[in-house]
Amino acid sequence: MLGRTDSRRRLLFLLVTFAVVGAALVTRLAYWQVSQRDRLADAALSQTTMRLESPSRRGDIYDRSGTVVLATTVERERLAAIPSAVKPVERRREVAAKLVSILGLQGDDAKTLTDRMTSENKYIVLAHALDTATADRIRAASTAKEIEGVILEPEPVRVYPHEGGGPETTLAAQLLGFVNRDGQGQYGVEQFYQDQLNGSPRVIHAQKDIAARAVPDTIVVEDPGTPGADLRLTIDAGLQLALEQELLAAWAADKAQSVSAVVMDPYTGEILAEASYPSYDANDYRAIADSDPSRFIDPIVSSVYEPGSVFKMLTAIAGLETKTVTTSTELKDVAKLTLDGGRTHVDDADHKGKGWMKFEDAIAWSRNVVAAKVALALGNTTRSSSAILHEVWTRMGFGSPTGVDLAGEVGGILHDPTIQPWRQIDLANGAFGQGVAVTPLQLATAYSAMVNGGTLIQPHVVKAIGSQEREVPAKGQVIDPKLSTTLIGMMNHVVSTVPFYRDRTLIKGYDVGGKTGTAQIWDVKKHAWKHNLFNYSFIGYIAREKGIPDLVVAVKINEGHPTIARIGQLEMPVMSFELFRRIAYDAITRPGILPERRAPTDAVVANR
Fold this sequence. Notes:
The protein is 37% helix and 23% strand. It is of the alpha+beta class. A hairpin with a 2-residue loop joins strand 18 and strand 19.
């Protein structure tokens, strides 16, 4: 008979072991169920639930009338799929082939959709912004069992409903900008007012299905969101279209790289129209991003250039303020002005001297030598003269952004003589707009101050946000009201004295004034001036009553090709001052832009 194999000691050991293990398990279970309960519950919840933010409806953008929609949002559909739910892979290929046919895809686009549809993804977007007809064809194919595993989901799409003044453009594209697929405004008004237009998103919690979509019966709204605010612009849609058509015509005639213009109310700072050509179709911004993204940039606020002789009016301000000249002061125009001890010189465009002439005539005939002489004589030394001229520039808004409510504005380039002292040639060149870089909007703003009684206004393009009218205060008085009246007279003298300005700038029944500028263009790659390419500018005013300007118009023709290129004569089919006349007339005669009668400032009336 075998002996017993059990023992009390062994039994006791097993009991103790089971007790220890059991206690450990109970302790661990208590740890998970009590101490870690909230964390584990949150982890489990995160795997089966989702927090989803969906954008609120983006605000619309209207023109100044509040009736013309410049930008709005429509509901379209995107095509998504759950490839992993379609078995086998051959079936996925069949579905992909049918979708390629319905969508009319070719080449790389067809291959991309096929690759996505034949993957093992649980959810993937195949196409965006489907039109109604295409979405209906997909639904019909799904009903007929020709395709499976696909979903049509609502998708907001930003649209710009009005055609622009040029082919394949939308109205005010560079001013408005566009909205990308992530709902972010890009460039112009869309970017600057992103927060106001976008509102706040709707936030929900819900259980999610295998495709990571919210299960409808489980949706809980955390935040209902706030719709975006509508914007009413200062832009007049009719004038904007007319302006764009004028720019297209000038661009084609002058074979220019680009043509830009802005129309502004010099008293309020409201921008009534502004555009450049070439422009783009904001509804097809992705194609432009692939081919020529530089078109997104608005040259009115984001590109600088040497302005040339339009800057002589700034030199006039400095000379008249310091009383070193008056409009009738006689100055001798010589063929060449030697500077810096004979090391440098400036000359006039025609390389001829006109002899003694009144200062206002020298400005009208755009004499570089006279402008340089006035600048050099502002102070007792080159250093003091430089400081005076530079101070006028900065006071009139150059060297810093205007603060316009458009994305991407730049401040231009001015060299500060207190940091790097100017030579005589630097001062002389600056007197007629060389060695500085400015934007067309800065020029329009400065000229507005010259003609409105001396107030530097704040340019802006948004008139109201929602139902709230914007208050846009001026920046302050920058020149004496009497000087403003003198400058108006000088600008009128320019276009009424010089025959080739008078014949192509004056408008019967209206008071007109302004200043031209023609500037050489430096080729940074070749380190030389570009041959027979120039930047042409004209900034001026138009008025219904003598001496009381209604509007300011700034025009820039970038890299225009002169058809007549002689010393002192650079002619194009459409000159900058001719383009000004066309735009100014369009603007002044456009119904609803100007009040019945412009209420002039007291200063302008007092000094007429």
